[in-house]
Amino acid sequence: MPLNRQANPAISNGSHSPAAEKAVPLTPPADKKLFTPGPLGVSLSTKQAMLRDLGSRDVEFVNTVSFIRQRLLEVAGVPASTHTCVPVQGSGTFAVEAVITTTVPRESGKMLVLVNGAYGQRMATICQAQGLEHRVLNFEETQKVRVEEVARVLAEDPSFTNVAIVHCETSSGVFNPVEEVGKAVKKLCPEACYFVDAMSSFGAVPLDLTGGSVDFMVSSANKCIEGVPGFSYAICRTGRLLSCKGVARSLSLDLVEQYLGLEKNGQFRFTPPTHAMLAFCQALRELEQEGGVQGRAKRYQANRKVLREGMASLGFQELLDETHEGYIITSYRFPDHPAFSFTDFYSQLNEKGQVIYPGKVTKADCFRVGNIGHLFPEDMQYLLRCIQEVCADMGIPLPLITSS
Predict the structure, then answer these.
(1) 233 strand-pairing partners
(2) Strands 366-370, 357-358: parallel, antiparallel or unpaired by DSSP?
(3) At 216, which helix (H) or strand (E)?
(4) pLDDT digits (tens, 9 = 90+) for 337-378
């Protein structure tokens, strides 16, 4: 006999304990605004898309996966005749590690990792964990990767089989010149595999994968496309991907086998994040409704403009100078005032429903404010008002006085 959910509120609320039968459902708390690099706030309709169950082998879910793979190629601006999209269960780092373990040859493989922040360093850490030969080419955290320096290293040592770079280094907010670097790689090491981590930029920052000779690019569901956490994905040159068969040092992170399984029957080899993928379908539709990459970029740039002008009027100093054009996340130096405590600053903003992020650079005390996710200019304006209130409560006069 089917359960009568109307007569049994404990079951309908997801609990089977006797105490729960008498419990009054609580009103869910209001969502906080997330000014972070991820996970991000998403639309109500995207969250509502998760409120159903589908089996991983259900025809509807198989079609959902197919739609996502094709639509991501369209967002990337590459044809299905030369490229493919391979989704990977897990956070963005899972896709980064999947590309590295799948593409660095077992014999004579050597990766050049271009590092100007924490996420470039993470790729180097993955190489180290997997015992892969690699070289780290370091740049200042507040500076872009210099194409001429990359070219010099490649000219001196053309034996690199792989080159990796981060597009938007969210530890600082720097945009790296990935297309120019890609051209240098293909000129000086034409057989090398060029890998771009576009985790926090894809979907809102134009990127020419073909013109930049990008072989593999990764991003995550919960970044600029504004889905929920649960999976990441790689956009790959199909021929290059297939040439890596048998290379991976991992079972679950083998991109070639993941691709072959999806091509065979449209299904994942292991349990997929069904609810996250349903939400992502809705997020992709909303991206298209907003005008695609250009439309999403326009909103994020508007957010950045409000934040930049407002914080400047309050006397806050940005970490990066005027030569940087990034609009994903902004790093601000701590105020030079004895009453300032980042822990208190963060906590008081959090109590007001405004969630910022600690800094991640090593040579400056900073905090970060993201412009991405389901945020709009009016959200940035409200955040600025909250910052003024918190500073007043902390006894920090505004505008800040900059020490010489």
Answers:
(1) 87, 219
(2) antiparallel
(3) strand 216-220
(4) 999 999 999 999 999 999 999 988 888 999 999 999 999 999
Rounded CA separation 334/403 (Å): 12
How far apart (Å, rounded) are the C-alpha atoms in residues 178 and 191? 17
Phi then psi for residue 51, to 5 deg, are -85, 45
Cα Rg of the chain, angstroms: 23
- For 114-133, the pLDDT digits (tens) are 999 999 999 999 999 999 99
Closest CA to 176 of 219, 210, 205: 205
Residues 311-323: tens digit of each pLDDT: 999 999 999 999 9
Output the pLDDT for position 6: 44
Dihedral sign (CA 240, 246, 247, 249): positive
Q: Tell me the CB-side half-sphere exposure of residue 58, using CA atoms within 13 A.
A: 11
Name, in order, each residue with C-beta under 8 angstroms of 19's C-beta and a sequence gap of 6 or more.
none
The model's pTM: 0.92
User: 157 is written with which tokens?
Assistant: 């040592």
Strands (E) located in 279-339: 329-333
Question: Which candidate, 123, 112, 198, 121, places its Cα nearest to that of 158?
Answer: 112
Q: Answer whether 275's CB lies under 8 Å from 293's CB.
A: no
Which of 269, 275, 272, 175 shows the shortest CA–CA distance to 227?
Answer: 275
pLDDT for 261 beyond 50: yes
SS3 349: helix
CB-based contact 76:217 (threshold 8 Å): yes
Task: Give, as one character, the DSSP assignment of residue 318.
Answer: B
The per-residue pLDDT for 401 is: 85
